[in-house]
Design brief:
mainly beta, five-stranded antiparallel beta sheet, three-stranded antiparallel beta sheet
Amino acid sequence: MKIRHVKAVAVFGIVLVALTGARGSGGGSCGGSSSGSNSSSSGGSHDNDSDTTTSGGSTGSVTGGSSANKALRDVTIDSCGLDASGKNLTAKITVNNSDSLAYSYDVNLEFKGDLGDTTVTKATARIDDLQVAAGSSAKGEATTAYPGSGNGSEYKKCEVVSASRTAS
């Protein structure tokens, strides 16, 4: 990707975060490696009454706002990095459902290098159909193959790029 495209994407991301008030819980550091199993959920069905959001991501969690942002705000990244095998990038998340209905969550994450670093290949991972009971929280793990050949240190952060929930 050309540097002008990277700059345009960076500016768009900053504007998006500024306009949305940095809603969402998106970012986590990929500073270290984490151990765990290579598990992620997949599959499932959706109906038309899900809350879907997309964001450039930020650190922490934010409350309030429109219902379109609820799924994204419910997700917090606990850790991310290269797993113990050195073959997979893994993000561990917690989804906190404070509503009175149970939901099934779909979460898309992206592993990135430093802002403007065009040498790092973006990697994506997904968790599908993470069931979270009303007034409860659940943990999930998204895993994707490590596209590099080093120790994973080029991945500086991971962020939630989209999240949706469907009443279950």
